[in-house]
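Annotated sample (chain length 202).
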Amino acid sequence: MEKDQWAFEKSAFEKGYLEIAGIDEAGRGPLAGPVVAAAVILPNSFSVSEIADSKKLTPKKRNYLYEKIYENAVSIGIGIVDPAEIDRVNILNAALLSMAMSVDNLFPQPDYLLIDGPFGIPSDLPQEPIPKGDSLSISIGCASIVAKVTRDRLMERYHQDYPFYGFGSHKGYPTKAHKAAIIKYGCCFIHRKSFKGVKEYW
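Output written by the structure step:
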């Protein structure tokens, strides 16, 4: 039987919550660039199909769904934590901070949060961490897509500033080509100094 992607949202509605936000982040694994989170509140009428964990979608499909989400969402908030802050507080704390920032940027503000992963975020709002939530909740799935596309576009912009690293293709992830570029050129402003594969060449 096909799973109900609205199950977590329906459960929250039944508890009396009205503005339910799904939250996810992108960019915990790369050696360069920010971690980017998105928070999405969907209308009950949202009926766009094919929403899934962004990692399972092609770039073309992600971009298509990104536009559909922006056309239909009640509210979308973005949170961005830069590499310097990632190095200062560590990547997990930076990811949770970016998710909290994305919630703060929602209007209207939500009254309940569905969060991808096993951890809560620094927020006083009622919240429910959901491991693999990007595949289980429609709201988190939408947030996953928005976060991924937003971060990819930022990395494509950084590619213009630092073309020899290839950020436009690998988006800062530790590919063979990226690691070879770090060895050859050293590190740039958006590299994460605390990460293995970067700190050795800083």
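Annotation: Residues 7-156 form a domain with the Nucleotidyltransferase; domain 5 fold (CATH 3.30.420.10).
Annotation: The chain has one domain: 7-156.
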